[in-house]
Amino acid sequence: MEYRGKVAVITGASSGIGKQIALDCARRGTRVVIVARRAVLLELVATDCRAHGVEVEALAGDLAERSFAESVVTRAVERFGRLDILINNAGIPKHKQFFDVTPEDVDYTMRVNFMAPAYMTVAALRPMLRQGEGYIVNISSGAGKIPPPRETVYAASKFALTGFTEGLWLDLAGSNIHPAVIHVGPIDTEIWDKAAAEAPVRYRGKKYPPSIISDAVFECIEKKRYEMTVPRSLSWVFLFKALLPGLFRSGSARWDPVPASVIETARQKATAGEHR
Questions:
Q1: Triad 126, 4, 70: Cα angle to 5°
Q2: From the CA atom positions of the chain, what is the Rg in Å?
Q3: Is residue 180 part of a domain?
Q4: CB within 8 A of 170, min separation 6: which ones?
Q5: How many domains does the chain have?
Q6: Is 63 exposed, middle or buried (0-12, 13-18, 19+ CB in 10 A)?
Q7: Which of 108, 129, 222, 255 holds its CA 20 to 30 A away from the CA of 177?
Q8: How would you write the pLDDT of the chain (276 residues) with one tens digit per residue?
Q9: Alpha-carbon gap, residue 172 to 132, rounded angstroms
Q10: Residue 213 domain-assigned?
Q11: Which of 76, 110, 88, 70 is nearest to 18 (CA)?
Q12: CA dihedral 165, 59, 91, 68 (to 10 degrees)
């Protein structure tokens, strides 16, 4: 794969996985369009990318807004004349007891984690078809295969992204546009702090560096992998759920049970006629 001169759009690029992918693209000579909400942090990443001698377009905005999501692809093509690689990485956590979830939580999480990648993929098809080649890599999650406790809405958004990509495998066959999905395990990014701000996080195990996800992205492109799980040990959890779903449910309930006080509080609010 010759990356020099190619154009990549990377969302969620102000930190963590997206930042690592952007820097690794720049090191390979790829022109990058980086996207995130936090303009100051995004510009710092842009500066680091430019240090590798590549052109960079930094676009700050909220991908939950369809018009902004679509405009990213439009701007990439306007400036560089092409779009070769789309990395749908941006995502937000939603770590709450479901009794506390609001319709607004559901709407915003789905718009950022699923609808934005879908809108951007639709927009990216035209330039990729004109070129005769393209790569779409969707950064999903282990939660896109197995729903962790307190992650119902987040898991739903990632299940949707995973299913969307699996559909693309079939619908884009023969087009020379290659779709891939990466199921991400516990990576050492700030998403843990954001999740903990909503509810205590039970997980205390190893967290892997963002570089292993960036490596997987380039493997999906270069070897045309359709699906990867990183770290690979997470695949055993998927298999466990598939073979022993009842044991998986009971084990999850024991590992991170719903406190009786949470249920009682929700019941009292429901009895009193409160919506939330």
A1: 30
A2: 19
A3: yes
A4: none
A5: 1
A6: buried
A7: 108
A8: 899 999 999 999 999 999 999 999 999 999 999 999 999 999 999 999 999 999 999 999 999 999 999 999 999 999 999 999 999 999 999 989 999 999 999 999 999 999 999 999 999 999 999 999 999 999 999 999 999 888 999 999 999 999 999 999 999 999 999 999 999 998 888 775 777 677 667 666 788 899 999 999 999 999 999 999 999 989 988 898 899 999 988 988 888 888 899 899 999 999 988 666
A9: 12
A10: yes
A11: 88
A12: -70
> Cα 195–200–203 angle (5° rounding)?
80
Cβ atoms of 207 and 17 within 8 Å: the answer is no
Which of 108, 119, 154, 226 does the annotation list as catalytic? 154
Tell me whether residue 60 is in a domain. Answer: yes
- Residue located via tokens 């999850």: 252
Told to judge if 154 belongs to the known catalytic residues of this protein, a careful annotator would answer yes
On whether residue 200 sits in a domain, the answer given is: yes
* pTM for the structure as a whole: 0.92
Q: Indicate which CATH number applies to the domain containing 237.
A: 3.40.50.720
Domain of residue 187 covers 7-244
